[in-house]
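serine-type D-Ala-D-Ala carboxypeptidase, Clostridium cylindrosporum DSM 605. Tokens?
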Amino acid sequence: MIKKTLLSITLMLGFLLSFPYGVKAKAPIPNNITSEGYVLMDMDSGKILASKNENTKYEPASITKILTALIVIEKGNLKDKITIKHSPTLEEGSSLYLKEGEVVTVEQLLYGLMLKSGNDAATALAEYISGSKENFAKEMNKRAKELGAVNSHFSNPHGLNDNNHYTTPRDYSLIAKGAMNNPTFRKIVGTATYTIAPTPQFPQARLLVNHNKLISSQKYKYDGANGVKTGFTKRSLHTFVGSATKGHTNLLVVCMKNSTQCYVDTKTLFDYGFTNYESKKITEKGKVIGNMAAKNKKDINLIVSQDTSYPFDKSNPEKVSTDIKYLDIKKFHAGDVVAKLEIKINGAPYKTVDLKASKEYIPKIDKTLEKYGITDSNKNIIAFSASLITLFALLIVFNIRVKRNRNNIFK
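Tokens:
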């Protein structure tokens, strides 16, 4: 085992000593939210800052299309061309008015899905990925669980009413967070207008205006808003997912079952979040936070493998503590994980981050063995062979002694 000694640890946590908010009292969570269920989340950390009925099941309506779009982006190709079948043209509700036989790209359909909320676009994309809406629903449920949405079930790609189609505010915040981490998705839902060129079946250009009024409407426009999706059916009422960024803080709001005030609720929650919390980095990917000395005395830096941030309470910033745990490994190469950085917030475990070695360390004895072609992959074979040779030699010596003893007896 290599003895590893920490020479220095320099975490970039100076911000904890310089928060200018210590004397300002934290504002209470708004009590005028009209949505039956909601979640306000810090998108970078996934921490829920405020919520109501976060685990209650609701019908999501067209915010379903957030998950649909994410799956299509991950599994499809934006440049692929799709010939519209008859089935998408039968969908009710919000529509792109796709025509059977019309040829459009996956990218065009995605903009039609997320800006215009086309139910026909949802069906066309589902058939493109999985062959049918039913098979695509299986993909939706699988991907939802991967994102942490364990109390949801999806039966179709568009969100039209179905008793077996439901989610929770918490679940859908996790789905939307995962979608917003995708640059292509983020670009689409942050677009105010988009034009689909004419086709022989539809000779007029389709001008799509984003249904998300936090982006496209002067009346409801919110500074920093950058996504994501509206929803409505008579049974689900209004549903909405919105995102906004100010400084380094990225917030996400999910509203469920709202009669008419989803934009007002979302803006109120954004204001509360930005006023009371500020996201700051604890670790930064690629940065050196310390070093260790191995037996050969070479300095080997510890490199952070990922960004980590936390939404600190401006009125009373949480305290961060860290501890480095070294892995019990005898040798390593540059880029190998050699330690874990355990991060705690106010004494409670928060995240564990891999630390990678900047240089290799191979003991001299191992280098000598490798020089003669002895590596980890054949050391065991060589050791076993050596054991057999030793055993064979012992048997020969034993047999010689037995023969000598016999000869002595019969002399």
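The first strand starts at residue 5 and ends at 9.
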